[in-house]
Amino acid sequence: MNIESTELQHAVAKDTGTVPLKRLLHQLFQNYPGGLALMLWNGDYIRLGRRLPATTIAFHNPKTLRRLILRQDLLHLAESYVTGEVDIEGDINALLAQRDYLQALQISLSDRIDLLLAALSLHDKRRTNSESHNLRNATSITSGARKHSRTRDRNAIAFHYDVSNEFYKLWLDERMVYSCGYFTRPDADIHQAQRDKLNHICRKLRLQPGDKLLDIGCGWGALICWAAQYYNVKAHGITLSTQQFELAQEKIKSLGLQDKVTVELRDYRDLPDETLYDKVSSVGMFEHVGIKNLPDYFESVRRVLKPGGLFLNHGITNDEEGWRPSATTKFLQRYVFPDGELETVSNVQRVMEHIGFEIWDVEALRPHYSLTLRHWLARLETNHERAASLIGESAYRIWRLYIAVSAAQFDRATIGVYQILAVNGRGTHGNLPLTRDDIYQH
Fold it and tell me: Do 148 and 40 fall into the same domain?
């Protein structure tokens, strides 16, 4: 054993301030049903809960732990992880599954004082390997311009989607579908689940050869290319993301679909009146619109859809009305989805009906998104080194946390995802079948 490691062990052994800290933490977590481990800045290892730890949180300084325990500030913990002051090792899903317990911790005044004194008495006994990361956030694009103006929306979309096409390729499926898959069986891989989802949408829209399809928020072009290839339709997609637009153009050309598929950079509010479509789809896009703008969004769709035409809106919803601030929403707005807002599925349908749509079918896909997110997280973590080289370590941590938190929210049903099939105009359903049987016939 070298002299340096001997001195470190001696310094840690003398750090008697960890004793009351450990006692208080064990007391606070005595009913914790999961298993959690803490690695402190001085090398101390603290095991909490009734099960073997599935996750270890490594704190590189006393300030972060002190603030987390005394103020129960989960946003601070998330930001500390992103900046490298904290590391989350092991199964991040297992940690987030117990978030309700962590948020509900009741700490008495005397325990708060004791914990504060214990934390203040601890000193950093060694040099840590934590890095200093630049924290990428959306502050620069959410200040100044009016919320959901065309310019601000374009910047918000670029913030999220124009990270790097190569980055998204690391963890999305082979067709780069960035919305929940459709799992016909729980052990299906992500590639099959996304193929089945594309087919599911096309069947719900009852696409017929020669139909004109508009896909609002077309992403990297997966749905428009699929519909043209396998349903022989004329498909047009719009997006605000420059990188998505460029890759979609490449995909269309590589598949030889130039005569059937087109894509353009366009805001949904600027769709021309003179072009009408038989069917319209929008998958994972309306979350960016803003609750107050939902009437304008659905009116824009109705305006370009033929009377009696079908519209499928696939999107994430909230379990509460409005979009209230929380640690999760603040993190998402600041680092992931600037200006994104979610509304309840009932309110979404109410707006659609007021605009003039008849709701024909509603399907909940919440379990499918939980499965999808776990596939994405596993693929992202497997490609950690490559992802960090493309977008930086702090951005990788943001995405890892965002995907894991989203999976936990779907598991807890605080958010959901629905496919709503609607007809433009009441009493104009035309030749729609009486049952869903045709959707499931292969």
Answer: no
Structure tokens at 426: 């009441």
Cβ contacts of 260 within 8 Å, gap of 6 or more: 228, 232, 233, 234, 235
What's the confidence (pLDDT) of residue 123? 58
- Report the relative pairing of strands 86-90 and 55-59 from DSSP bridges: antiparallel
Position 46 in a domain: yes
- Tell me the three state secondary structure of residue 293: helix
The residue range of the domain holding 255 is 140-440
Burial class of residue 373, CB neighbours in 10 A (0-12, 13-18, 19+): buried
Domain-ending residue, one of 120, 150, 183:
120
Give CA–CA dist 289/343, Å, rounded.
11
For residue 135, being part of any structural domain is answered with: no
Q: Which structure tokens are listed for 384?
A: 């950690």
At residue 121, the pLDDT reads: 67
User: What is the pLDDT averaged over residues 285-294?
Assistant: 95
User: What residues contact 108, with CB distance under 8 A and at least 6 apart?
Assistant: none
